[in-house]
Design goal:
The protein is an alpha/beta fold. The protein has 11 helices and 12 strands. Strand 4, helix 7 and strand 5 form a beta-alpha-beta unit. The two termini are about 45 Å apart.
């Protein structure tokens, strides 16, 4: 909770700094002399323009995305001003027009447009892993962070699942945050029904993320209703459970880290989950948040699959979660000891409508034995 308080206040500080900066600079970009020659009055008019822009963005998108737009605009404008300042000092240049502001406007518009495109479209990412354990080949399809209703509804989810089905995976695993607080019940039900028709050798497995239980008591459905709907449609929901897929593979589904971090429940440790397992079998862990790498590596599991970070989502803030110790890894494949860790950027995103530091994806993982 303390971490989120720091993050929220940091975002608020960046937002207001951007708002003040933009209010100061807008009179230089546009001729506000018809208002007054007073710098104070021009600043107040600029402030009004920025606040109106923020209100419009909030109305047409949402508050979180509006804040991102204003922060980006302010940061890019400040960087642009600094670059032009250096050009003037180093090369003794002078500019007839305020090019810096127009460039900042163009760069902001282009970068956020690209970010919108990267958020709302979904790519396939492939990983090929090998093991010295004697196992049969296994193809895993991984999705996480659907946050149903953010960038696609139940029908849109079905289109993405159809593309995954074309890869003919042996199993589909969902690493949490399947739904969100704003997810409509009809979309949740529709998505669960779509998963019922997914054809694979070993089926569909899901673990909860921090959003699946719901932070908003006014959500259209309870976590129990979600679980019941998933189970009704043959999706196996794992809460600190171990499934033997065959003679070669275990799938270990963990309760989300929020159970202990937010003090709303408990979860078993990795040593408790693995102590009675056959270490000759390949152990796959499904854990929404990438926060327990040390213990997972010490338990000598073979592969850990996570989401939660959205791949960092926004450049240049991609690595903040790792820097402040909230996550062990942000995106992609990494290794510790004998363990491979994969974090997906997610098939969708939370409230923010842009991915400027990554893209939406589903993941296909091929595992083969070296022997």
């Amino acid at each position: 909770m303390a971490m989120w308080i720091v993050i929220i206040w940091t975002v608020i500080a960046f937002l207001w700094a951007s708002v003040i900066y933009l209010a100061n600079k807008l009179p230089k970009l546009f001729d506000f002399s018809f208002i007054s020659n007073s710098e104070l009055k021009q600043f107040l008019f600029g402030l009004a323009v920025v606040l109106i822009l923020g209100a419009l963005l909030t109305f047409f998108i949402n508050l979180a995305s509006a804040a991102v737009c204003l922060i980006y605009f302010g940061l890019i404008w400040a960087v642009s001003d600094f670059v032009f300042y250096l050009l003037q000092k180093i090369f003794d240049l002078s500019f007839e027009y305020y090019y810096s502001g127009w460039i900042a406007f163009a760069v902001t518009f282009i970068s956020l447009s690209i970010g919108f495109f990267l958020d709302y479209n979904v790519w396939q990412t492939n990983y090929h892993l090998s093991t010295n354990k004697k196992v049969s080949p296994l193809k895993i399809a991984l999705i996480a962070d659907a946050h149903l209703g953010t960038t696609f509804n139940g029908d849109g989810f079905g289109k993405h699942i159809a593309k995954i089905q074309e890869q003919n995976p042996d199993l589909l695993v969902i690493a949490g945050d399947f739904v969100d607080d704003e997810t409509h019940k009809k979309d949740m039900v529709k998505a669960c029904e779509i998963l019922k028709n997914f054809k694979s050798k070993y089926g569909v497995y899901l673990v909860f993320g921090n959003h699946d239980k719901g932070y908003n008591r006014f959500r259209a459905f309870s976590s129990k209703e979600l679980i019941d709907e998933l189970k009704k449609n043959n999706v196996k929901v794992l809460f600190d459970e171990v499934i033997s897929l065959n003679d070669d593979y275990y799938l270990i589904g963990r309760k989300d880290y929020s159970e202990i971090h937010e003090k709303i429940g408990t979860r078993l440790s990795m040593s408790e989950l693995t102590e009675n397992l056959d270490k000759n079998k390949y152990m796959i862990v499904l854990d929404h948040q990438p926060t327990d790498y040390k213990n997972q590596a010490e338990a000598e599991v073979d592969l850990v699959l996570s989401g939660h970070t959205h791949g960092g989502q926004l450049f240049p803030f991609n690595q903040v979660g790792k820097w402040i110790g909230a996550n062990n890894w942000i995106y992609g494949l990494t290794h510790q000891n004998k363990t491979d860790f994969i974090v997906t950027s997610g098939i969708s995103a939370w409230a923010i409508k842009f991915k400027t530091g990554t893209k939406s994806e589903y993941v296909i993982i091929d595992i083969k034995s070296e022997k």
